[in-house]
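Just scan my protein:

——
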Amino acid sequence: MTWVYLGIAIVFEILFALGTNATQGFTKLWPSVLTLLAAAGGIYTLSHALLELDVSVGYTIWTGIGGVGTVVFGAIIFKEKITLARLLSFASIIGGAIILRVTSV
């Protein structure tokens, strides 16, 4: 269940980051409410994952994969550009997350 909680936390992290853009400085009610709920959900599910994961592993994977997901969905939803430098950065983050996962067993 630990990795399921972490996966859910990552989804909430991506929703939080994308939602923050939609709040327009927290001046839009419903995007603001959804963004705050996503933040709370992410922290809640991350806290459950950290019951068994080291914080250094769980938090790093949460922010790293959440960041990659945010960039990917930012490109899809907001038409942000994905450059070669960004692709190499994604590969580094994903590679690091995989190494953390394999070595934390």
